[in-house]
Amino acid sequence: MKRLFSVFILLTTISVRLFADGFTLTTSAPSTVEVGDKFRVQFTVNTQGASHFTPPDFKGFEVIYGPSTSSQSSFQIINGRTTQSSSITYTFVVLCSVAGTYTINPASVTVDGTVIKSNPVKVKVLSIGQGGSSQGQQQSSGSHSSSQQGSPQTSRPVTSGSNISTNDLFMTATLSRTNVYEQEAVLLTYKIYTLVNLTQLEGKLPTLDGFQIQEVSLPRNKNFQLEQYNGRNYRSVIWSQYVLFPQKSGDLVIPSITYEGTVVVRARNIDPIDAFFNGITGMQEMTKHITTPRLVMHVSPLPNKPANFSGAVGQFSISSSLSPQEVDANDAVTLRLNVKGVGNMKLINTPEVAFPKDFETYDAKVNDKFSLTRSGLSGSKEFEYLVVPRHAGTYTIPATDFVYFDTESRTYKTLQTEPYTLKVNKGAGGNAHTADYSNNQQDVTELNQDIRYIKQGDVTLYQHGEQLWGTTRYALYYAVPFILFIAALVIGYKRMAAANDSVRVRGRKANKTALKRMKKANKLLADKKQSEFYDEVLRAMLGYVADKLNIPQERLSKDNIQSELTASNVSQEHIAAFIKTLDDCEFARYAPGDATTNMESVYNSAIRIITQMEGSI
């Protein structure tokens, strides 16, 4: 029994030693405070088995209070599994009297004989600005959450009837670059600064002509931070960000936006005794309109585009693979081209691969694997080509060029894939034209020269001595095949010309391709994948006019689309409906209300206008 007890104690000790490696000591403190502000610095260890806590020296700070020790435990049973957690928190209250940037050095604590240290934390101490000295103290209360609205607590007490100036509450609009090229990604940032108690803010980005817009996903809970701006200490937060892709050159304007903010103010002439006994808070809300500045972006056209320009603008790399590299005739081969990088990934054209002429080729399948970042669309775009070699032999698939505009060097760069050698074996079925019947075909062997096969069927008899030469029938024997031969040449030439006319082929297939994409959009609608749905509808509509009217991808702006449709004798009613559907598609994802209803409305509008335009063009 003693032996079993000893084993149990040993196993328990080993388990404690193993789990000690998972213990951490973390430091939390505000990133920015004001001179003279008192704020909390907390050190938390995720176990209650800690001892011998050693605080840092707090160099540059004055410790007002601490350490105060508190502990917390939780016990949960979820689906029959039991989890338990515990922690100890050591709290200090400190202040700093001199502006600057300070580092709170690591603290240490002992857990099961092991010394654990915390992470160092930097705190920026701002000088007292014109906004008041008590602002920073309220700043230390932590983050303030909001869904589409922030709730900053600020220092300036405002009473009803007071004038809230543009220095107390305003919003800035900034561009990451103001001089760019077409299709180059630009980050647009809206940031709010406030000295008053702002509880709600409403407004949206208007329609921007000449831009393709992608909104950056930001937390819905806004965490305001203390920031010094023009000598005053404000509570600030980035409210919204957008990545813009300019679609045309010239000076493009981003108009000002008027937001409607709600500010909580102190009501005047409230009797404190009446407020206490009647539950009156003494606070009321007032509305403040906030206008952002107007911005201008100078967009330069891309210089002398090469003939094989892919439409890509940014920074990219390319890789390729061929699988398999040895096949039988009539077996499929897959070539994959993978473009990686950051830029206008959506507008990259499908690279043209010079496959051997007797390969049967199919349209490339495009797989988008990119996401939105502040520098543009980042990730990869894969092009998958399926080809079928029909004859045996050894073939070379030459290197494929990928030409893009590099935004760093401001020049065009050409990347190349590696060439591939494909070995095609004859296979069991031989070439394509014999594969269907070769298994049933049998050779005929002559057993002897004096035995011939008996001809069966109807036999035409001629009178002995009758001559065919010079008769009408003789002339027809030569004339009819010659006429048929000439007709076959003419028809074949016309068909080859039509097949080689890629513009005409794309135009014929435009409606079919658009409807295929709308079917995919319908599936995304059923799955309620909002972002992917709108991307697919936009791809369907823009791809339709690009194929139908032979508009290059880099020229797919609303102005160009409208002018090309007008030149194609499309009615202004249909043109307006097409442009409106594009606008609805771009902004429906941000529209209030039922997302499913918005998606269905955009889907029905897109189907209707594509059908109407197919009958007009």
Explain the overall architecture.
With 617 residues, this protein is α+β, with helices and mostly antiparallel strands. Helix content is 25%, strand content 37%. It has nine helices and 31 strands. The strands form eight sheets. Strands 22, 24, 25, 26, 27, 29 and 30 form a seven-stranded mixed beta sheet that branches. Strand 29 and strand 30 form a beta hairpin. Helix 6 packs antiparallel against helix 8. The chain is elongated. Residues 1-20, 131-155 and 430-446 have low confidence and may be disordered.
Characterize this entry briefly.
The chain is α+β, with helices and mostly antiparallel strands and 617 residues long. It contains 9 helices and 31 strands.
Arithmetic mean pLDDT: 78
Q: Provide the gyration radius in Å.
A: 38 Å
- The shape is elongated
Q: How many domains make up the coordinates?
A: 4
Unreliable sequence segments: 1-20, 131-155, 430-446
CATH architecture designation of the largest domain: Sandwich
Largest sheet: 7 strands, mixed
From the N-terminal CA to the C-terminal CA, the straight-line distance is 94 Å
SS summary, helix count: 9
For the record, the CATH class of the largest domain is: Mainly Beta
Helix content class: 10-25%
Quick one: how many beta strands?
Answer: 31
Strand content: 35-45%
According to CATH, the fold-level topology of the largest domain is Immunoglobulin-like
In terms of structural class, how would the helical and strand content be classed? alpha+beta
